[in-house]
Amino acid sequence: MIRIGVIVNPGSGRGRGKGLALAELLKANSSTSVDVVVLGKFPEIYPALERFAAQGVTDLFISSGDGTVQAIQTWLAESKAFAMFPRLCLLPHGTTNMTAADLGFKRRNLAEQAAFIAAPSPQETAERYTVRVANPAHGKPQHGMFFGTGAVSEATRYCQTAFNDKGVGGNWATFATLATVLSKSLFLAPNPNDPNRFDRPYPITVKIKEQILCQGNQLMMLATTLNKLILAAKPFWGGSEGGPLRVTTMPYPIPSIPRWIIPTLYGSETRKFPPGALSRACTACEVSTRTSFVIDGEFHDAPQDQPLRLETGSLFRYITA
Q1: Are the CB atoms for 308 and 289 separated by under 8 Å?
Q2: How far apart are CA 92 and CA 8, in angstroms?
Q3: Of residues 149 and 16, which shows the higher confidence score?
Q4: DSSP state of 167
Q5: Could you give the CA distance from residue 244 to residue 167 in angstroms, rounded to a whole number?
Q6: pLDDT tens column, 198-242
């Protein structure tokens, strides 16, 4: 029997109101028994999930951005409160929706979304593993779909403060951040000591089993289980036979960021890439870094006395249409 729960995080969209409008549409439909939770404060998400687990919710619709989805996936995977994970349906109502761009619900009209939730029709689904960060500095494992450190983490932080906090979200904010990086690399010489630049060296070592993938100063490192990232980018070319985690590293310095940015983000498996750049598929890896890392837009610190362990996480099913 299908049991439906809906979580709406109004704060995810920086006041856009899509989630609240959806909740009103569901409330107006008196024929539906959908359990809708509108978060007043973020911690309310956890008792809501506990209630859904007790009710045996099978399909969980999430009206939010990446950060809320990441928190829900982490709780589901680590609490083991559900006998079987509910299917997730990601409604891209947040400021940043990279996970939903790959695995989200394809119907963007709010009325169509509400009608589907009230009376689900035959569905298309996709399955994907999470990236499990086993040992962040605070000791609480995290699950998400995208991990980044080095320039990735610093650029994400800049994007949030310079654009997201001012109401610019999604692809526009990412494009503006890339434009900032490109303009500095075009008109200013490399300066590894400039803290205001993203394209500076970060000490990063990545190890897959006994193989050291990179060591020393790197520009960035990312790991993802998504098929595409924001702006439909695919900065990985190591195939998929080694496992569901796609790991890419970029060395510092890159001779010319403008020269390499397009083939790096959008090339094929046989693309040309910057000298020293590497991409691999794996089931797990270790990352040694002193830089904070970002997982689906949320920032954490790596442990200082041991490598950060990234693992293949839990397998979720997503309702996409």
Answers
A1: yes
A2: 11
A3: 149
A4: T
A5: 34
A6: 889 999 999 999 999 999 999 999 999 999 998 899 999 999 999
Distances (CA, A) of 200 to 4, 190, 251, 287: 47, 8, 10, 18
- Residue type at 289 in one-letter notation: T
Cβ of 95: how many Cβ atoms within 10 Å?
Answer: 25
Q: Which residue has the higher pLDDT, 193 or 293?
A: 293
The four Cα atoms 82, 54, 28, 19 give a dihedral, to 10 degrees, of -40
Q: What is the pLDDT of residues 292-318, one digit of tens each?
A: 999 999 999 999 899 999 999 999 999
- Please count the other Cβ atoms lying within 10 Å of the Cβ belonging to residue 113: 23
The residue behind tokens 């008792």 is: 47
Strands 87-92 and 59-64: parallel
Sequence-distant (6+) residues with CB within 8 A of 139 are none
What is the maximum alpha-carbon separation in the chain?
64
What the block records as the tokens of 54 is 């007790």
Scanning the structure block, which residue is given the tokens 């359990």? 35
3-state secondary structure of 114: helix
3-class SS of residue 319: strand
> Considering the entire predicted model, what is its pTM?
0.91
* Environment class of 309 (CB within 10 Å of its CB; exposed 0-12, middle 13-18, buried 19+): middle
Tokens standing for 219?
Answer: 């520009």
Q: Cis bond leading into 253, ω under 30°?
A: yes
Query: 3-state class of 93 per DSSP?
Result: coil
